[in-house]
Amino acid sequence: MLRLRLLYGLLTVVLLLWGVGGAALLLMKDSSEQYSSRLAEDYQLIDAAQSCRTITATLNSHYLPSLAAPTVEKIPDRARYDELKKELLGNLQIIRMGTREDRRSEDVALRFSQAVQIYFGGYENYFNQQDMRQDERAELLRFMSIQTQRLTDLSENILTVGEKTLFSGAERLEKEAGKNILFIATLVILGTTVAALIYYQLVRHLVDPVSGLTQSIEEIRRGNYELSLPMPGRGSEFTAVATAFNDMASELKVHRRQTNEHLLRTNLVNRAILEAIPSPVYVLGDDTKVIQMNPAAEDLSDKLGIIGRIPLKIQRILDDCRENDSHFLPEDPREALLFRIQEKEYYYLPRIFRFESENESGESGWAILLHNVSRIRWLDDMKTNLIATVSHEIKTPLTGIRMVLHLLLEERATKLDEMQKTMVNSANEDCERLLTTLNSLLDLSRAESGTTHLSRHNTSLHERVESAARTFSGMAKNKDVTIKVEPQLSGAPEVYIDPVRLDEVLNNLVSNAIKHSPQGGTVSLVISKPEADFLRVTVIDDGPGVPEAAQSRIFERFYRAPGQDLDGVGLGLFISREIMRAHEGRIGLKERSENHTEFYIDVPIA
Amino acid sequence: MPQASRRLLVVDDEPTLRLGFSYALTNKTTNVQTASSGRQALEMTAANHFDVLILDLRMPDIDGLGVLQSLRNMGHQTPIVLCSAALNAAAATQAILCGVVDFLHKPICPAELRGVVEFILHPARNAYAQAMAAARQGDFAEALRLLPPHRPPGSSLEAWSEIFTILLNRHHAGEIFLLEQKVRQNLNILAFKVTGPV
């Protein structure tokens, strides 16, 4: 359709071009023909007038001298006269034809024609009177010369008339040419107008739909899917485009509705889940601004008087997480944070999770779940307190019993018989074992409740290691074990610790190492610096090592490796781990080979 | 010639322990009495003179520290042995500030009990025993002077010398914190050992 319009438009322009060109050519040809014909006509008149004069002159010069002569022997032959007369009459005919259009010139031609008749009458006279007298001849001669003069004058007039006609013809031609220019100019203007019309038509049918399409695409880009393109007329090339576009828009609309519904559903589900979670949940953007929080979180923030924000303590941990780009997912309720709400203490274990969308959209942020562990903490504290209280309550009478048993065994006042002695000894041993267990339980409760109250200061780690070696020098000597402390690491920094608690850890490790060392073995204590933030103490013994199955469990409470017949209730390493954890340090086992056990602790540098 | 009778008071809420203690300590030269509570102990000390008190910390009415404070407030400079299963740094620091330098960690055996009483009543001629005797009188400068010059690192001698130094240079309350820290670090070695200072 558009192609056809384009063709028609251009065809019109081409036709106009041809029309203008053809018209110009025709007009040019016509005017040149007119000009040449007019010229020829007018010139014929002048030529005829001239020729008339020439003919009269020829006639006169041929025949009249005989009139002037004194005697006439013979009248010249009139054959020439007839020939010339015929010619002159022909010319006369031409003159009459040429002067037809103008009354005045016709009149001149008439008079010329009469003069010619008179002139020829003179010659007829001449030929008819063979024997004229001299005076008659002179008279005729005079008459002829007068007539000739008259003819000359009249031809002069005709010449003038001819010239005049010539000029007026040129003027007319000029007028004609002016008309032609006007005609061509009109044609050109018409052509221009048609071209302009075609241009507007083309714009309307070609450019407008394209710009309309562009606008619609822009609208859709802005999210206005409701829009549709108006259908162009039948047969337009844009029909297909508009149809495709409208289809696309409606599909997008459907798609968006589906997406919206899906989003709405997901949102509802999420909201329901969030609302169902009793723990406060905050969802934060990358800039840690709160995007969403569940009712529990709103409640908590309200009660803490920080509406719409996360508690400062959490913010600090979050800042750490952001710095390290890591999650914070503690398991131990003892890492919970304390919040005071209306005079009551609540413990919340913060779990901070970083989320990032998998696609390119770059959506990321943080989710914070505050797990209320107040109850767990309370139960844990209760348990610890119970253990401590019960242990103390058992320990107190036990010290009395032990005292009495010892006194009996002293046999100061009375001697015991063998049976009695055996029984009292057995009772004493039970008593000792019970006391050891109670002490371990007390240590445990102390480790669980007391590790949060560290009294940390900057200390030389080497000094602590030396001290531990000194403490166990006696025990080592009894077992013929050598304790070797590696020389101090040059330039080793101080560590930030609670010396009493760290001593407990070191003592535990050294005493374990001695216990598991074979007779005559060596226990080595080495300080190294594996990382920028930690100093490491490695305790190495050449005992049989930790059985593989037990390795993962030795730090559990009350765990004792199978086949161990040594004393202890399996709390030493657990307490050590608790102490190291409270120090933000580490404890671990690094067994390199059989008969070679390595325990290490990483102690934070001051 | 028989020595003059020494009067000892055992204060403990545990009957078997009172029984054992008095049995262990009673001999020709000693007269042992017992009190089952802090209140009773104060009543008895108000009525009679005692040469040494064996004092438990945890008691139902007035605890060991309370008894100690009351006695010192009343001007009694009686040597006191703090004997407890629950001796902690804070209590020990308070005790040291009241001039108590003898500690026993329960459970104890009779030898330790007899040893500490002997150590107080008949201090040996050695520098350590004399220094502790001076400290018991509240004369920390003399105690510091008397301590043997050789104090190996990590020994109780070194710990005591540091504690005495802090006590002598104590000008403000903040120093108590320092003292408590020192005590906490050395709580185990500060206790009386039959074998002598460690």
Q: Provide the CATH top-level class of chain B.
A: Alpha Beta
What's the CATH class label of the largest domain in chain A? Mainly Alpha
CATH architecture of the largest domain in chain A: Up-down Bundle
The strand line-up of the biggest sheet of chain B is: 2-1-3-4-5
Distance between the termini of chain A: 87 Å
Mean pLDDT of chain B: 89
- The backbone outline of chain B, from C-alpha atoms, is globular
Main sheet attributes: strand count, strand direction, barrel closure of chain A: 5 strands, antiparallel
Outline of chain A, from the CA principal axes?
rod-shaped
**Which topology of chain B does CATH recognise?**
Rossmann fold
Largest interface: A-B, 25 and 25 residues
Number of structurally distinct domains of chain B: 1
Q: Structural class, from helix and strand content of chain A? A: alpha+beta
The total beta strand count of chain B reads: 5
Q: How much helix is in the residues of chain A?
A: 55-70%
Could you please describe the fold and organization of this structure?
The complex is a heterodimer of chains A (606) and B (198). With 606 residues, chain A is of the alpha+beta class. Chain A folds into four domains: 2-193, Four Helix Bundle (Hemerythrin (Met), subunit A); 277-372, PAS domain (Beta-Lactamase), CATH 3.30.450; 374-450, Orthogonal Bundle (Helix Hairpins), CATH 1.10.287; 453-604, 2-Layer Sandwich (Heat Shock Protein 90), CATH 3.30.565. Chain A has 15 helices and twelve strands. Chain A has helices at residues 2-63, 65-68, 79-98, 103-128, 134-221, 238-276, 295-304, 312-324, 374-410, 418-450, 461-471, 473-478, 499-516, 548-551, 572-582, and strands spanning 281-285, 290-293, 337-341, 344-356, 364-372, 457-459, 482-485, 495-497, 522-528, 534-541, 586-589, 597-604. In chain A, helix 1 (2-63) runs antiparallel to helix 5 (134-221), helix 3 (79-98) packs antiparallel against helix 4 (103-128) and helix 4 (103-128) runs antiparallel to helix 5 (134-221). The radius of gyration of chain A is 70 Å and the shape is rod-shaped. The mean pLDDT of chain A is 83. Chain B is of the alpha/beta class. Chain B has a single domain (6-190), classed as 3-Layer(aba) Sandwich (Rossmann fold). Chain B is 49% helix and 13% strand. Chain B has helices at 15-25, 38-47, 64-73, 89-97, 110-121, 127-136, 140-146, 156-168, 174-185, 187-190; strands at 6-11, 30-35, 52-55, 80-84, 102-105. Chain B has a five-stranded parallel β-sheet with strand order 2-1-3-4-5. In chain B, helix 1 links the parallel strand 1 and strand 2 (30-35). In chain B, helix 1 (15-25) packs across helix 5. The mean pLDDT of chain B is 89.
